[in-house]
Amino acid sequence: MKPAPSPAPEPKIALIGNPNSGKTSIFNQLTGLQQKVGNFPGVTVDKKTGTLDLPGGTRAKLIDLPGAYSFYPTSKDEKLVVQSLVQPGNENYPDAIVYIADVTKLEKHLLLFSQLKDLGIPVLLALNMADVAEQEGLQYDLEKLGRKLGAPTLLVSGRTGEGLEQLKQLLVDLLAQVPAMSVPIDSTQYRLAPEEAKLITQVQGDFPGYTPYQLVLLAHHIKWLPFLTPTQKQVIEQAIENTGFQDLQLQVYETMQRYDQFTPIVQQARDKDGQGSASFTERLDDLLTNRFFGPVVFFGLMLMIFHALFTWAELPMNFIEGIFGGLNTFLQNNLPEHWLTDLLTEGIVTGLSGVVVFVPQIAILFFLISLLEEVGYMARAAFMFDRIMQFFGLNGRSVVALISGGACAIPAIMSTRTISNWKERLITILVTPFISCSARIPVYTVLIGFVVPPTKVGFVSLQALAFMGLYLLGIAAALLAALVFKLILRTNETSYLMLELPAYRLPVMRNVWLTVWEKVKTFTFEAGRIILIISMVLWLMSSFGPPGAIKRAEEVARRSAQLKNLDETATQDLIDAQVMEASFAGQLGKFIEPAIRPLGFDWKIGIALITSFAAREVFVATMATIYSIGHQDDEYSIREKMAKQRDPITKELIYSPATSLSLLLFYVFAMQCMSTIAVVKRETKSWKWPLIQFAFMTGLAYLSSWLAYMWLS
Amino acid sequence: MQLAKLKVGSKGHVSHFTDNCMACKLLSMGILPGTQIEMVRSAPFGGGCYIKADNLLIALRKSEACIIMVR
């Protein structure tokens, strides 16, 4: 395989560095809003790219590769870095690399740099956190460091923007040398082990354009690298056998050799030691990771986030609904009465409103979470809850998703991006919707009174206890399901904690705002599309029926309203109810009645289950329409109306304790939210997981409702 | 002695690792033979520990702390 013709129209520059090197800050400084988040093909790792304008008018494409410690990956993110860099000609193979290292931890941050040097790609070494180094009095002889390490070296700061103009200038110089430097080097930074040297000679002929070190890496990662042809694989496997190439042993050997090579260089180039600022972080951690106070502070913070999601989001959410409601009324009043008008207002505008209404919650959650991430707190939470969460197959960071799920599963699921272990992340995504979200509250409020009498035991009302019981049931279901998935799902990824706890720093607000912006954008444009389509389908189903059926239902309703001498509102309510019954949704409700009969549900509840798919709280509005009180859909009057409903044949109460409990359990467990499905699809990059999730959640709902109904009736 | 057995507040130097696979990751983070490690505290709810290796603060699981031998 020949390397791609180097001077592509837009040179590609990769940003590489260890986790916590402040790479993202630099990326944000360099690209600002000119960045795009996509995906690496085949995996669900964010691929951030941006446009970089260089002095002299060159435009370059900047790729932010995931943070990695070395070319020996332990997660999908790190594997991507290897995959992009060991194959000349890969679509992410860069023309030049900017390597970011934390200047305050230079001895720990140069391993990957040393490995990069052996790829033959021009590298620039940017020492980040110049501002911190200055505060601490830490000084390096940059000229000496650069000369000994063999790369242009400069100080930068992702916080203040210091050094970034110089970085761009150095990049221009570096790119000018690219053609000369793109001839693969034939040496390595460390002395090759005899096995490695032999292996290289054996396979070299089959891999033109590869550097010796890239060949060593191919041998190390032969098991998972996706791009090798069967013949190439065979050649390497043969060489591994011939030379006695030992994967782990050689990894350790190489790593130690590299440290031995660059550690003295770093020490000799250090002019002045810094007065470590670590003590502040350590003192703060005495409290924040304390065995007792640590979790207390954490739950305090989570309570704050939870509170913010509920209360801060309410006002903008009402505002959004108000705006779209107003727009609907305006359109209805000013457009001719036609089904196209209805499609526009009740289908599209309502669907759009259903997308935009989530934006405040997403923005608030990501504002707070990325603030905590920026200051360095999230790593502490992951550390404190690692043990408990591991038991359930989850990650320490899953706690945040599970708690946010109490407000809304959508931002919660989106927040799992920071979990690097794929299995732990997937399980978190799969179980989070079990946590009772705010959309279930109106349903619980309406139904709980049919099951539990409004009496008090001591100070506590039984209904409040039942309410809490439903929440706890959701939590228990989430944890148990996680446990089941932990046992079922197979992975060849080993789970590690080994987590660097970064020093506490003031947040860089630019990073926070960019995260919020990016999350809102992805939700609106990617998940939003699916939500809009489903909501239009739901609208079609509830406003259209078999030919003539809707018209007939309207006439029947009008006639019986005349007979009963109803006023205008009541007539309209009756028409709406009859139309709903005649529509496809109504037909479907009747069609599924035999299936939900064992749970104690009639076809009217069936309709509500279907329309709830738009959002669970739609249950209340649907009930209002079905019982022809559409113009007064407050929870109290709906409850009154529902309480009086009797079966037309047996004359028994429809909302008996048995049916109501069964329905409550159904709402606790079932996956009834198209927006969640859309987000899970977007986060797992396939329809497989949302479908599995839908099946097991709804299956569990069905089973528990059935058992409850059997037991009580 | 295993790092996991080190008392909170005491220090030791890494002598070797007893598991190559985990050792690789530790090495890449900068925990090398000879690195000074201080046991800072153990995690809430048991299990893990919070260590200081040179100027790095690192959280480890118990299983991870068990493969690091210190003296």
Q: Can you offer a commentary on this structure?
A:
The complex is a heterodimer of chains A (713) and B (71). By secondary structure, chain A is an alpha/beta fold. Chain A folds into three domains: 1-276, P-loop containing nucleotide triphosphate hydrolases (Rossmann fold); 293-439 and 446-517, no CATH class; 525-712, no CATH class. Chain A has 33 helices and twelve strands. Chain A has a seven-stranded mixed β-sheet, sandwiched between helices. Chain A has a two-stranded antiparallel ribbon with strand order 7-9. In chain A, helix 14 packs antiparallel against helix 15 (339-356), helix 21 (441-451) packs across helix 22 and helix 26 crosses helix 28. The longest helix of chain A has 42 residues, at 293-334. The mean pLDDT of chain B is 93. In chain B, 21% of the residues lie in helices and 38% in strands. Chain B is built from two helices and five strands; from the N terminus they run E-H-E-E-E-H-E. Chain B has a single domain, classed as SH3 type barrels, CATH 2.30.30. In chain B, a hairpin with a 2-residue loop joins strand 3 (49-53) and strand 4 (56-60). Chain B has 71 residues and is of the alpha+beta class. Chain A binds chain B through residues 69-70, 72, 74, 104-105, 107-109, 111-112, 248-249, 251-252, 255-256, 259, 276, 278, 281-282, 285, 289-292, 294-295, 379, 382-388, 390, 494, 496-503, and chain B through 20-30, 32, 40-48, 50, 52, 54-61, 64. Strand 12 (499-500) of chain A pairs antiparallel with strand 4 (56-60) of chain B, so a sheet runs across the interface.
Annotation keywords:
heterodimer, A: 713 residues, alpha/beta, Rossmann fold, 3 domains, seven-stranded mixed beta sheet, two-stranded antiparallel sheet, 33 helices, 12 strands, 61% helix, elongated, B: 71 residues, alpha+beta, SH3 type barrels, five-stranded antiparallel beta sheet
Quick recap:
The complex is a heterodimer of chains A (713) and B (71). Chain A has 33 helices and 12 strands. Chain B is globular and about 30 Å long.
